[in-house]
């Protein structure tokens, strides 16, 4: 079945780095734009970044620009988020999501999320 | 960047109809998509585009839009519809995607 599974979350000190991964299965990964979306504890959803199907285009939320880097490996059906210079306000559950652009943009498949905690 | 504003909470009697609204300038140019999130779970897409439901989403969920307001309507709300609901749209100013503030729906 269509599935996204995130990994790589954990506890990291402020200023530290972490790399999240998202393994895709059940669909042709290389056909889709992909995105990272996060949710701080008790808060709403915040879009973080997206990457085009061939990695030609990337975009980032202002809150993470210059610190986070999105990438993908279509041969491995995997999406990544390299997070550097982490701050307390980056603490959140991070979801990877598939973007559909048929009849309007939407995040149609989500992973279960991976928790990132930035604390000393 | 643009914002999408939702009422923080609404309640609905079992079997009745509830409308959840989402307001923002970006909705004048782009369709909204809607997501249901239950406690401890990932969001699930329920409506996208003009009024499209992904496979498996009950037809009691519908979407509409007028001007700067998008709406999600649940016709005949069920106990399992109790959840947080978020809207989302593209945005031509600032970040390319923006989420609404979220609405907690309680089914009485």
What does this structure look like?
The complex is a heterodimer of chains A (120) and B (108). In chain A, 0% of the residues lie in helices and 53% in strands. Chain A has no helices and 11 strands. Chain A has strands at 3-7, 10-12, 18-25, 33-39, 45-51, 58-60, 68-73, 78-83, 92-100, 106-110, 114-118. In chain A, the strands form 2 sheets. In chain A, strands 2, 4, 5, 6, 9, 10 and 11 form a 7-stranded mixed β-sheet that branches. Chain A has a 4-stranded antiparallel β-sheet with strand order 1-3-8-7, with no helix packed on it. Chain B is built from no helices and 10 strands. Chain B has strands spanning 5-6, 9-12, 18-23, 32-37, 44-47, 61-66, 69-74, 83-90, 97-99, 103-107. In chain B, the strands form 2 sheets. In chain B, strands 2, 4, 5, 8, 9 and 10 form a 6-stranded mixed β-sheet that branches. In chain B, strands 1-3-7-6 form a 4-stranded antiparallel β-sheet, with no helix packed on it. Chain B is mainly β. The A-B interface holds A 35, 37, 44-47, 50, 59, 61-62, 95, 100, 102-108, 110-113 and B 1, 30-31, 33, 35, 37, 42-45, 48-50, 52, 54, 86, 88-90, 94-102.
Keywords:
heterodimer, A: 120 residues, mainly beta, seven-stranded mixed β-sheet, four-stranded antiparallel β-sheet, 11 strands, globular, B: 108 residues, 0% helix
| Number of E-type strands of chain B | 10
Q: Per the principal axes of the C-alpha atoms, what is the gross shape of chain B?
A: globular
- Helix percentage range of chain A: under 10%
SS class of chain A? mainly beta
The largest contact between protein chains, plus residue counts on each side, is: A-B, 23 and 28 residues
Number of helices of chain B: 0
Q: pLDDT below 50 for ≥5 consecutive residues: which ranges of chain B?
A: none
Order of helices and strands of chain B: EEEEEEEEEE
Multimer state: heterodimer
* Unreliable residue runs of chain A: none
What value does the average pLDDT of chain A take?
97
Strand percent estimate of chain B: over 45%
